[in-house]
Structure formats: structure tokens, C-alpha cells
Write a structure and sequence with these properties.
Rossmann fold; alpha+beta; six-stranded mixed sheet; five-stranded antiparallel sheet; single chain; 2 domains; OB fold (Dihydrolipoamide Acetyltransferase, E2P); 8 helices
């Protein structure tokens, strides 16, 4: 096992003034045995970053170190890493046992040790009864477990997962996430896991790196990233439905947004143009406008029933806004105006120019 250091890592395609930068100076220190998830939308650079750690992409600047050893010029086979891909990459004509053992055979590991390692991995992944089958006789989830088994038998310093669950259906993805969590607890190997799925990121990560346009927007525990997003991108990407982000003018204890002025439970961090963030589930109370009392006037336009909860879509003035309410509550009528009440502890403020968080 080993730590991973990313020091001002840069990736550019091409040379000179026409070079296309895709990774812009990523810095991160990943502890020995830590499970890190790299999350972001398609094209944000997360897989490119993973492939640079693996040695499958050359880095254009900075340093990558594994276990304290700089590996910029080290071949992938000599980095002591094992990678699990989205498409499984199994040999179709080989049995499960042969697929898992192939890398060890290439390294000329003794047959007895190969069998011991494969049997141990098969037991961990519950593949013992499938060792004589070929990949076409397996389900998608079983094939993914074989791909993970092939990585486990190598006893690497680092596991790299490149969107390994993308080809599985929702139920199987949830089950496989639990298997990966269990696997990490048992083996304790330093792991980097790439995904565009925030649910995977939130449930698997000990810490997560949020990527956007080749930049690392934030690194932290899922709780930290959810509760204190560093930028408007993180605020809008992490959380489902995403955080409401309202651009307006703050003045003391009032905020003008969408053509209306609404009261704040406490003064904004500064006067002037700001972005106010509020998660859909963080409304303290709401009541019909006809009942009187203070609040933010919210006009209901659409409601989605999701079982245990409902999503209520509407507008604050001219701005779109979403509420999440308990599914057991009587829903408001379409077209009704609600008065929303909120507390200062749930408000997030961002600078509209830098998009970064503004602290009080």
C-alpha cells in the first residue's frame, strides 16, 4: 500500500501556442489506505487524471508520486498499480480462473501461489462457483467482480477504478457499491475511483475530489463538500435535486432577487451583488400565503411525487426554485403561493465573479 501525491499536475495535448490544456495544476495528497473518489461531469478531466496516475497518459507538468517515489518516467507495469475499467476487459475465450490468473502467469508467479491468490480473491468476491465459466456465461455484475478479482490477485499498492459501474443497472450498481466498500475494508488498499455519478461519490468516498473543466474545485469528505461547497459549481453538482442558486442584490437584512425583495434571517456577509444558495430540503417551514405571516413568496408550478418525498417546482419572483417536502404531507395546489421560512444556518453565499464561497 502507498500514498499518492499529485503536485501541480498539468496535462496539455499538442505543443506551443496551439496546445490544448485539459488538466490545470491539480494538487492533492492521498493518504495510505484512503479511498478517494474523483467526481465530475463528462469531459471534466477525471479519467485523464486517473490515467496519468496509471501511466497511460504522459503528464505535461508537475509530479505524481506513489509511495514517495516520483513515477513521471516510470512505465505503467512498474508502478505497482491495478486498474479496473468500465468495459471489464476480460478475455472471452478464457475461464474466470484464467482471466484472474493471467497477469500473474505473465509475471511467472509459481502455479501454487497463483491458485492461492485466485482462490482467496474468489472467496472475497463470492466467485468460487464461477471459476470454470467463461465471461459470456456471466451477468454484467459477475463480470465486473471478475475484473476486480483480477486486480486483487496482483496485491498492488494502489487500485484505480475508471467508472467501473457505468454498465450496470441501478439495482446492481447499488449492490456492487456495497461490495466495493466491503472490499476496501478488508484489503485497505489506497484507491482512486472515477465516476460522474454523485451518488456513487457520496456513498463510496472517504474524501472526494470534485473536478470541473480540468480544475479541482474542491477536495473533502462527502459531508464537507455537501455542507460547505467551495464554489457554485460544487453547490449545483453535488446534491439531488441541486442547490437553488439565486443571483441578486444584498442590502443588510434583505435580498432582491427575480424582481422581488425578500427578508433575510440575518444580514448577508456583505452588501452588493451575491449569489444565495439554499438546498431544496433546507426550508424550515412553509405555509399558504392566505394564512398571513412573513416569508418568501413562492408560486407553485409543478409537483413530482417520489414516494417518501415530493419535489415542488415553482418561482420566487421570476427565478426558478425547488422545494423538497415530506411525501406524507398534503401537497400544495398548483398555482398556490406559499410563504417560505428559512434559517441563517442553511444559507450559502457565493461571489458572482469568482463563483467561490463567501464566508461571513
Amino acid at each position: 500500500m502507498a500514498s499518492i501525491s499529485l503536485r501541480n499536475v498539468v496535462k496539455r495535448y499538442g505543443q506551443g501556442p496551439k496546445a490544448n490544456p485539459v488538466i490545470h495544476g491539480v494538487n492533492a495528497e492521498i493518504k495510505d489506505g484512503e479511498f478517494i473518489v474523483i467526481v465530475g461531469p463528462s469531459g471534466c478531466g477525471k479519467s485523464t487524471l486517473l490515467r496519468m496516475v496509471a501511466g497511460l497518459e504522459e503528464i505535461s507538468g508537475g509530479e505524481i508520486a506513489i509511495g514517495g517515489r516520483v513515477v513521471n518516467e516510470v512505465e505503467p507495469a512498474d508502478r505497482d498499480i491495478a486498474m479496473v475499467f468500465q468495459n471489464y476487459a476480460l478475455y472471452p475465450h478464457m475461464t474466470v480462473f484464467a482471466n484472474m490468473a493471467y497477469g500473474l502467469k505473465i509475471k511467472k508467479v509459481p502455479e501454487a501461489e497463483i491458485k492461492t491468490r485466485v482462490d482467496k480473491a474468489a472467496k472475497i468476491l463470492e466467485l468460487g462457483a464461477l471459476l470454470e465459466r467463461t465471461p459470456r456465461q456471466l451477468s454484467g455484475g459477475q463480470r465486473q467482480r471478475v475484473a476486480m478479482g483480477r486486480a486483487i490477485v496482483r496485491n498492488p499498492q494502489v487500485f484505480l477504478f475508471d467508472e467501473p459501474l457505468s454498465n450496470l443497472d441501478a439495482k446492481l450498481r447499488a449492490h456492487t457499491r456495497l461490495e466495493i466498500q466491503k472490499l476496501h475494508r478488508e484489503l485497505g488498499v489506497t484507491s482512486l475511483f472515477v465516476t460522474h455519478d454523485q451518488v456513487e461519490a457520496m456513498t463510496l468516498a472517504q474524501r472526494m475530489i470534485v473536478m470541473n473543466g480540468g480544475h479541482m474545485e474542491q477536495i473533502g469528505t462527502p459531508e464537507e463538500v455537501y455542507a460547505r461547497p467551495a464554489t457554485t459549481f460544487v453547490a449545483g453538482f453535488i446534491g439531488s435535486p441541486p442547490m437553488n442558486l439565486l443571483k441578486g442584490q444584498a442590502s443588510g437584512n434583505s435580498f432582491t432577487v427575480g424582481g422581488i425583495s425578500v427578508p433575510l434571517p440575518a444580514a448577508a456577509p456583505r452588501d452588493g451583488e451575491l449569489i444565495l444558495g439554499l438546498r431544496p430540503e433546507h426550508l424550515d417551514h412553509w405555509h399558504e400565503q392566505s394564512a398571513g405571516g412573513p416569508g418568501w413568496p413562492f408560486t407553485v408550478e409543478m409537483i413530482e411525487m417520489l414516494g417518501a418525498e415530493r419535489l415542488v417546482y415553482g418561482r420566487l419572483g421570476s427565478e426558478m426554485f425547488t422545494l423538497r417536502i415530506d411525501g406524507t404531507l398534503t401537497p400544495p395546489a398548483i398555482g398556490a403561493t406559499l410563504m417560505l421560512e428559512l434559517s441563517d444556518k442553511h444559507l450559502h453565499w457565493f461571489d458572482p465573479q469568482t463563483t467561490r464561497r463567501v464566508e461571513k
